[in-house]
Amino acid sequence: MSHPLKAWTAALSLSLALAGSAAAEEPAPAYVPRAPLAKLDLHDGDTIVFLGDSITHQCLYTQYVEDYFYTRFPRMRLRLHNAGVGGSRAWDALHRFDRDVAAYQPKYVTVLLGMNDGRYAEYLDDVFTGYSTEMDRLLEKIDACGATAVLMTPTMFDARAKRMQPPGGFMGPKAVTFYNSTLAYYGAWLRDTASERGLGFVDMWGPLNETTLRERRKDPAFTLIKDSVHPDAPGQVVMAAAMIGDLGLPRIVSEMKFSLQEEQWTSTAEAAEITGLEGTADGLSFTSLERALPWVLPADAQPGVRLTDLGGEFGRQTLTVSGLPAGTYTVSIDGAEVTRATREELQTGLPLHDLAKTPQYQQAAHVAELNKQRNEGPVKTLRNEWVNFQQVKFLQSQVEKNPADEAEKQRLADAEKKLPGMEERVKAAEAAARAIEDDIFKNNQPRPHRFEIRPVGK
């Protein structure tokens, strides 16, 4: 006869085993794939925050994207906030997130981090693990504040540009050789993360590398990144174009088409209102009120405009005229000649976005100049305020790790002396930036223009 306690123990063991087996057999929740963000859904009053490191702190690609928004959506007042700080890693962005990101109540937060997180070395698994962990925390905070993240790959590290610099520096030959590949790996993880979480994604690494490779077939010394890390203005145009292309934003400013059939002029237009159409067998005139302005960038960005065919790809503003007799025609706007074109060129479609003499181009150029003043003035001032804040947080972490390091303590004390009054200075810079933006919105509203196409000499 078996002992009662042994029998009870055996029964209990069997029960637990069966329960464990049943639990193990329970089906896992069904995997539900998410669709990555296809395009930005923007409305008046929405805020976009550009979160990043020194490449964002440069206030260039962000400025060019702002120029796009100011001219493409002139009746939509978006809040555009640069939150880039030189030297930032995902860890640093977390420490300033509440005031420098969440406080602006963003709808979208673009994230350009990783260049510093990789530590300018060949791929190191523990370094990547730290980066991905901090990025996951950052994405959780973005989600918690009600915003949608747009993950952007780290930009290109130009090993050839680095090798063309004088010898020395903190990177060894192995790091120089492999760092661009390290950044590519980080970017691939970001792409997969955006896909899994249903977020936005922009490939910065690809267009910069592809443009560089294409241009080096003509000039082996070509670079978009003279210091190997921070893209120059033309490279930042490539970045801005990547953002507009990958975020599903409108590529057309306007399309105006006119046709002479049976001695009658007819018109069709996209994003423009045509009135007062008059014409003869060899010419016509009309008034056009477009909904947007061409995407025009400052002079130092023009090489990038040519590299990307920025107007043709992302700011088409075309005039097409069919039915004219063979010959060359003057195209005038508001009484001033802006170009001459053959019948064939007019039939193909005249790219107004390339004509610097048009009043629309000049108006957009003025908007770009105002925004350049905004970025080089109060926006850059605002970003510089956060440099010291970031330094304080870093030094605090160092002192916590090495409490006996008196030199580190002194550096922390010196940095902390600069913090008092920061909030007031931040608010003053924000107000100054808004004042210039108010001026931008007084100057970016489309105006009606009178076009006239006549044979040369008439």
- The total domain count is 2
Strand order across the biggest sheet?
2-1-3-4-5
Q: Return residue spans where pLDDT drops below 50 for at least 5 consecutive residues.
A: none
What gross morphology would you assign?
elongated
The main sheet comes to: 5 strands, parallel
**Elements, N to C (H/E):** HEHHEHHEHEHHEHHEEEEHHEEEHEHHHE
Q: Helix count, per DSSP?
A: 16
Oligomer: single chain
Secondary structure: helix percent: 40-55%
Mean of all residue-level pLDDT scores: 94
Strand content: 15-25%
- Determine the CATH topology of the largest domain: Rossmann fold
N-C termini distance: 123 Å
At CATH's second level, what is the architecture of the largest domain?
Answer: 3-Layer(aba) Sandwich
Query: What is the gyration radius calculated from CA atoms?
Result: 29 Å
Structural class: alpha/beta
- CATH homologous superfamily identity of the largest domain: SGNH hydrolase
Number of strands: 14
What top-tier CATH class of the largest domain fits best? Alpha Beta
Describe what this molecule looks like in 3D:
The protein has 16 helices and 14 strands. It is of the alpha/beta class and 458 residues long. It has 2 domains: 39-249, Rossmann fold (3-Layer(aba) Sandwich), CATH 3.40.50; 251-458, no CATH class. The chain has a 5-stranded parallel β-sheet. The protein has a 5-stranded antiparallel β-sheet with strand order 8-9-14-11-12. The chain is elongated. The N and C termini lie far apart (123 Å). The model has no long low-confidence stretch (mean pLDDT 94). Residues 1-24 form the signal peptide. This is SGNH/GDSL hydrolase family protein.
